[in-house]
Amino acid sequence: WSGTHRDSDPENLLLASKCKNAAVKLADFGLAIEVQGDQQAWFGFAGTPGYLSPEVLRKEAYGKPVDIWACGVILYILLVGYPPFWDEDQHKLYQQIKAGAYDFPSPEWDTVTPEAKNLINQMLTINPTKRITAQEALKHPWVCQRSTVASMMHRQETVECLKKFNARRKLKGAILTTMLVSRNFSGKEEWEQDFERSCTVCMYVLCVCVCVCVCVCVCACACACVCVCVCVCVHACVCACGCMFPARKQEIIKITEQLIEAVNNGDFEAYAKICDPGLTSFEPEALGNLVEGMDFHRFYFENLLSKNSKPIHTTILNPHVHLIGEDGACIAYIRLTQFVDGQGRPRSSQSEETRVWHRRDSRWQNVHFHCSGAPAAPLQ
């Protein structure tokens, strides 16, 4: 099988047995795709935030190198117990990744060999064409000459950091699973009530976790451990409850950006895939009338947007997302469009837009659109 996993992270790495030197196996191929050779294409946005490659975040064509990037992140974590890219704000996290903004801080990295750092640098190369391949990585000195190159010191601090990292991951997963099951059994309840109940469950898990930690630590006469356990549990609970809304809102912003990008590129096929066939809209071009369906929009794509050879750049300002249950959302924003007019002069136009999104079969579709101000497609 020749393909790309697209979701390589520590959670999907398993040992074949508990024996020493057991084989490492890769699990969960739900997002995997077949890729022939060095094939590069846009296969969609998929993966776990901290392990996504720059090319995926930039929505560029990608292939097998995305897995090498994820492996570089995993190797970094395994050596020191924390990830190379991290921020509570997902947008800032993605900016770090796209810029390749990571380092090897002291004192954790002082005892890591230059060869290990070199391998990580080659795996976390921003340009996928210059990134080390799997075959090359297997021939890297740190891998094939580990008896002479790899450090033999016992990294106890890394082991402790990994335990904390794993504890946060497992607790967060348990809480999210509880929230999901709870939602599935209460379809008629409002999302806000569901979230409130899920946070109550989260606090219950937190209390149990703290109690277990206290009991263990009292028995071991190591009171300092209580503080560590409480901090880990609180952090995991806060992340689990706090990350769901921002992540969903970020998803709506991204799909809106993709739709606008399709408009700028004059790509009606891509635009139609993101929109519901019965899309309704109020926009300046319709002269105050409510338009339904895609034919009205097709006219502008075929006669204006697809024939435009001049650059168009759009910026979304002050996006506000309102979540409507699990499968609905509304986004309001200011759209600033920069373009070149017929005389070759740079121009800017501004419009205020609102889009209503509905999720069907795990795919978001734009069902209603309202625009005021400048036309959505600037006449050039």
UniProtKB/TrEMBL annotation:
One of its GO terms (molecular function) is calcium/calmodulin-dependent protein kinase activity. Residues 1-143 form the Protein kinase domain. It comes from the Eukaryota. Keywords: Kinase, Phosphoprotein, Serine/threonine-protein kinase, Transferase. InterPro entries: Ca/CaM-dep_prot_kinase-assoc (IPR013543), Kinase-like_dom_sf (IPR011009), NTF2-like_dom_sf (IPR032710), Prot_kinase_dom (IPR000719). Gene3D superfamilies: 3.10.450.50, 6.10.140.620, Transferase(Phosphotransferase) domain 1 (1.10.510.10). CAMK2 is composed of four different chains: alpha, beta, gamma, and delta. The different isoforms assemble into homo- or heteromultimeric holoenzymes composed of 8 to 12 subunits. CaM-kinase II (CAMK2) is a prominent kinase in the central nervous system. PANTHER family: SERINE/THREONINE-PROTEIN KINASE. This is Calcium/calmodulin-dependent protein kinase (CaM kinase) II beta 2. It comes from Electrophorus electricus. The gene is LOC113583472.
